[in-house]
Structure formats: C-alpha cells, structure tokens
User: Fold this.
Amino acid sequence: MPRIWVPSPMRDAVGGRATVEVDGETAREALEALMDRFPQVRERLLDARGALSPHLAVLVDGTELESLDTPLRPDSELVITPALGGGVCPAPSPARLRAPAARRPDRRARRRP
Amino acid sequence: MTLAQSRSYRVIGTRPVRHDGVDKVTGRAQYGADVRLPGMLYGCVVRSPYPHARLRAIDTSRAAAHPGVKAVITGADMPAIDTNAVADLGEGAIELKFASLLIMARDKVVFRGQPVAAVAAVSPQAAAEAARLVEVDYEPLPVVTDALAAMEPGSPRVHDDLYTVVPGGSRRDSPSNIALHVQYERGDVEAGFAGADVVVEREFRTAMVHQGYIEPQNATAAWEPGGRLTVWTSTQGAFSVRQQLSDLLQIPVGRIKVVPMEIGGGFGGKIQVYLEPLAALLSRKAGRPVKMWMSRAEVFTATGPGPATYIRLKMGVTRTGDLTAAAMRLVYDAGAFPGSPVGSACITGLSPYRIPHFRIDGFDVVTNKPRVQAYRAPGAPPAAFAVETVLDELAEAIGMDPIELRLRNAAAEGDRMTNGVAFNRIGFKEVLVAAKNHPHYRAPLPPGATGRGVAAGFWMNGRGTSTVHLTFNPDGTVNLIEGSTDIGGSRASLAMIVAEELGLDAHDVKPVVADTDSVGHTDVTGGSRVTYSTGVACHRAALDAIAQLKPRAAQLLDANPGDVEFGGGEFWVSSEPRRRIGIKEVIAKLGKTGGPIVARGVSRGLAMAPGFGVHIADVRVDPETGKVDVVRYTAVQDAGKAIHPTYVEGQLQGGAAQGVGLALFEEYVFEDGILRNPSFLDYRMPTALDLPMIDTVIVEVPASDGPYGVRGVGEVPIVPPAAAIANAIYRAAGVRLRQLPMTPENVWRALAGRDAALPSTPKAAPDAAMAATKERRAEPPGTSG
Assistant:
C-alpha cells in the first residue's frame, strides 16, 4: 500500500502522523484517498483554484511529480514537502496538475474490482 | 588518486585533451564580448546611487538628445508583471514580478546599483555620456542591510506588498521583510536533547560573497523587424534565458533565439538575466542590434552574490557517539528580492547524518542589498560550516575521533533526508573511510602547520532535462549537438560517453553547444547535473545511433539486420564473427546505404545521485597577526564514476579553492547599504600564492541511475572547506571561529578572547586530538611567548 509522508506543518490535519498509508494505483488516487480520509488536508494541499498548492511539491519515489496519473507501486512513497524550486530542491508542482478533487470522477465507477 | 574501479572502459576514465582547449588557449574561442554585428549600438545602464529610495521622476530628454543616442528606456518600457508566478531558473527561483524589478526599477529602488534607465548609442563613450544625462529625482528611504534587523517589526520595509509564506503554505496578513518561513521536523526534539549526554548550541554568521567569475555579464540583442529576437550572451542556460525573456518581455518563446557564447565562469551567477532584456528593448526601440556588458563594479553591485547568513544550531550526542537531536534556525539574507537558498540549506545541513529528532526553521529575508543568486551549492556552505563545526566540538567533548563520529552517524541508502525523501545509493561512508585512511589524516603535521581539521559536505545534485542529437560525417566522425553550455569541461566528458558507446576515440566525436533553435530543450548547466543528466542523454543517443546503424551495417555485410551485432566499434554477423565492419566505415557509407541519419537522446526524471565529500586541512595560525595559512589540503569525494578524472580533480581543487576564499578572505563590506569594495583590489579572492597543492581522492560508489553510475561533482567541494579550516584553526590556536570570513582581524580578536560564544553543556571532556594535532595554544596574542 503506497505511503504518503506528510510535512510537519500539515500533521495536525492527519492526527499527528508523519506518514499515512493509502489506497491508490496513481498519484491522483493516493492524494484523493488522503483527502477523503483527512478532509482538512484538502485546503492545505490545494489552492483556491483546486490545483496543487504552489508552495508544496510532491515527490513520488524520489522524483518530482510531473503527472497526477503517475502510476504507483504497492510500496511507492509520496513525499509532500515545501516547494523551493531551483533545480535541486523540489519545485512547485506544475500548474497543470489540476485539482484531484475538482476532476474527481465517480469513485464507484473508478473503483477496482 | 582514484579508488574503487569496476568494469573497464576504452574511453571513460581516460584523460584526453579537451575539445575546446586549443581554441581557448589561442584566443579563438568566441565569448560574448567578441560579438560584432553590422550597425551595432552600445548600451549603458543608469543605476541607482541609493540603496532604498522612491523614484519621484525620471527625465530622459537630455540623454535622448545627446549626439549618437538612438534609444533610451526606463521602467515604463518594461511590461508590467502582476502575478505571483515563479520563474524556476534551474538553480534558484524568483517571482517574475520581482525579476522584472530587479532588471529595471519602476516606483522605487531597493538596492544600490538597481537599473533605473538604459541608453543605446553609436559608441560606448556616447552611451556612457548620455547615461550621465538621465535625471532621476530620488526620495531616499530608510535602509536595512542586516537580515536579523530586517526581521524586527519596526524595521524599514523593503517591499510593501511582501507577505510571509508560513509553513504549510499560507501567507501572513501584514507585510514583512520575511518572505518565507520553511520548516522541517522529525521526532520529539526535546526528548532527543534529554537523551543526550552533551549538548552544544552555537551561533554562526557568514558574509555575502561573490562567485568571482572572470568574465563580466554581457548580452547582444537584435530585434528584427518581423518581431523575432536573437540574443547572444554568456549564460549557464540558453533555454532558461529564452524563457525568462519570454516571461519578462511578454513575447512568445518561439520568436526568441538565444545563442550561448563561451562562458568565462558562472558558478550559479549566470542563470538570472540582467542585461538581456534591456538590450532587447533598446534594440526594439532603436531598430539596430545593441551590445551591453558590465564593468567589474557593476558585476559586484548589481548581479547576484551568495547570501549573508545567520545560523543558530543546537546538537546533542551520547557518550557513545550517537547523535540524538538537532535544532537549527537559519536566516538567509536574500538581498532586495525574495529567493535566498535557505531551502536547500535546510536540507543539506543535517541530511548527511542520522538524527532521530530534529527541527529546522529557515527564513528567507529581504534587505536593501543586491539580490542573491545561486553560488556553487547554493546555501550549503554556511549550513555545513555550522553543522561540521558543532560536530567537531561534540567529538572533542566525548573524546571521539571526528571522522569516527561522522562515520557512526553517517546516512546511508534508505535513510531519509530532512525533507523526508529517502536516499538511494550514496557513498558518504566510503568517503569518510577513504579520508580516515588517507596518509594525510595520520601524517605528522608538515613544517609550519599547527593544526589539522576535517569536515564533510553534501549536495543533492541536480537532474533535470537534457537533449542531444548526433549527426554523422563522411569521414566517420560524429557531431554531438548539445544544449549544455560548457563551464567545467563537459564537452569532453559528454563526447567521451558517446565515443565509449560507439567504439570511437574521444576526438572522433565533435561536441557542439547549440543555440535554442538547434537542439531540444536542455536545462541549465547548474546543480552539478550536466555530466549526469546530459550524459544519460548522450548514452541514449549513442544507443539510438547503433540501432539505426545496424541495418546499414547489415546491408554492407550482406546480412539480415537481426543477425548483426555491435561492440567495440565494430558490427559483425553473429553466425560468422569474422564478417565484420568498423563503425567508421558504416558511417562513411551512409550516403550509399539510405542517406543520413540523426540519432537523439533525451534524459528526464532520473533518480537522484547525491554527492558527498570530506576535506582535510592543515593550517598555520600566526598568533601575533591572526593570519591563517593553509599548508596542506586534501579533498576526498564520491564521483560515482569519473568520466574524465582530470576534470573531476579540477572541480575538487577549484571548489576547495573557492571554499578557502569564503573561509578566509571574501566578504561584501557595506556601509549604509553601499558596497565599499566592488573591485578585485578590495574584494580579496585567493590566488595561487594563498593555496597549497590541493590533493584529491576520487571515490567511486556508482549512483543508482545512469549508465556508469556517474554523480555530479562540481558543487560538493565548496561545502566542507570553511568548517575544515575552522576546525584546524581551533586545533592550532584553541579558539573556535564561528564567523566567516576568518580574516586575520577576526582570528586575532578571537585569540584575544574578544569573541562571544554561547556555552556548551556540559563543558568539554577530554580532547579528542587527532594523531597529528599539536598542543593547543589558547593564549591571546602577545602572551604566548
């Protein structure tokens, strides 16, 4: 089950946990699962337009997230971390990474058998 | 010296003469200053004499009327940018609206040297004369030049519309000089300190320093009537320049061509554009090409140095040498606009060590000084200066060899950096062992030396995107078209990778650094990413070439393509190995087997390849003057795989030399926001006379990704020197220096007991002297007999 590392300023929204294990075969599904389980995360993770906050970066298995459809392995790690940019620090997630929630289809239709 | 070799190579690991060497030593290489175009004008920038002032009015009429003047621009000519969009420069980032103001002020100036107008004329002299005729009405404002002072609520505000971004990403409601507060936390810090036997808490300060590249910034722009813009410039990234020009001038990327000229040093300072947009606007207005360049004083006052910093660090350790906790507060002075490298400092400082409990608070603070830019391992040297000095103190306190303490706590694969990302394969422990086993570490101190220090350094190393193309010539040679501007010998290493895979000699591959119209997107030369990332692109392009050449070889061998194999520069029929043909012959006959081919390689999304180094420094401290001489120096570093060992060694030596400079000599000296030493006469950089031979040891622990395990090497070696030298000074003279640069005056003051130091708890236990450490001398000058 993929694991999400939550930055310390966001941990109050996930019951003080540093990591949360979630279901999901893609980054989008994993982040949706996190926000479904901890609704307060949504306002921290997304900006007013429903895109990933420009002040946060998401790394999947050590590589900056380029698409919310990035596939995950069962042991994948997503790290949410301050976005700093500059080539070697995680850069803000691209603006095209639009709202996981806003584009969320019917979960029942997407649910795997 | 190189440690740990694995598979053998024909070209990789050899030391061919660099491809651009002859042109550079004979003066044929074309730098930005060499650009000459028909009808070319010369530009000159009018800069603010005030570090902080409101612009009441600008009158350019006299300048415009001056003989020979063809165009004058002010902030009104720059498109207004009113978004919070961030330009990720590749090594460093800046909000676009601030980048625009950095290039040309509008309503007020926020550092001395900020452009307020620019002039283009038929000669440099006419442009300079006209620039003096631009009349600017300034209303001086209060100035703040110290980051800690700037954080105080009553401090002069540099910007009225800057609101602190706090941990979690929201913004504060009231304006402040604190642009960003970033935070990383793990475990229970107080419990961690409670479990320590020794806790040391110290404060550190480092000065604003310049990269000191030899070639000043320059740009030539030609805005053609059809709206197409061509810019020739000295840059670390042509594509970054193109994107910045597009963003700042609000013109489509496709209308801009950037031609990267040879570059006379950058070290991170030649990514941000300064003159390029001004030359472009002047060219558009004048209808002729415009060339601009900076004087050395302009380089110092109006480009981007490395930040001044304040760091408070508390660390705890058990008597057995296990680090238990750390608390780190970093304040980085961004200068006039947000964007100091405090974020990378928050990652690089403590990530090399397993520390179960920590809290890191980093602050990006604006002041009325030049806006900082990337400088070789941006942000890391000050953080390492603090961490590695405190580690030395902790090792002494528990009576443990300082390398042994580091080894005991060194991060390894699977351990997490402070931002939560797990390390893949790293060679920190191997580097520490190599340093510990190096003869330098155990040798007696050389004549004249009085102390030896050691320190480690870490840099994450960049990855990014690179594109290369290969084309083929009838003589069997190959053109390597790449977009990575060559700062540190990358042409040679990239050509060697292609040559290795194609079975050619290094000089059968001709590397060409192309303009933005002639090669696919390539990120900047920065972050120590080129040999790794562009190298992967070269490797992929070579494999693509082999795949395309195989059917041509099959034709020439009269065999099925599927039956043809390749290796060592030859194709052969698998069932009849004696039927073979050399790759050069296949390339030479492309015209007869179907025409030319083009191979390509793209790298993107590579795994990280972090780098670690350990430096050993022997120093002599003059007790009467406080002067420090570096007598012997060894730099040990993991290169993953040294493609061209000479250039790896050169990077290690160059980084160490720059590190010695910021450790002992270099600092911006400000007086009320005015830089008092904007020349190489007064800004003291180390020369050959200040340095011993810097010995190098290349350790090779392959990176997780890439064909050879290559790691970038350019930035790590500037990280350890300051702490290594400070630790050596302590062993030589008995005083801990916690302020850079450690000038004779600062050392002398410390020797005289005039520095203020926070206490450690409990006080140090037995001295963990290294084998060669002489008896410490703690007496102030004049009393040591």
Remarks:
- The interface with chain A takes residues 84, 86, 88-93, 165-169, 182-186, 341, 343-344, 347, 374, 378, 419-422, 424, 459-462, 464, 523-524, 526-527, 529, 605-608 of chain B (CB under 8 Å).
- The longest strand of chain B covers residues 323-335.
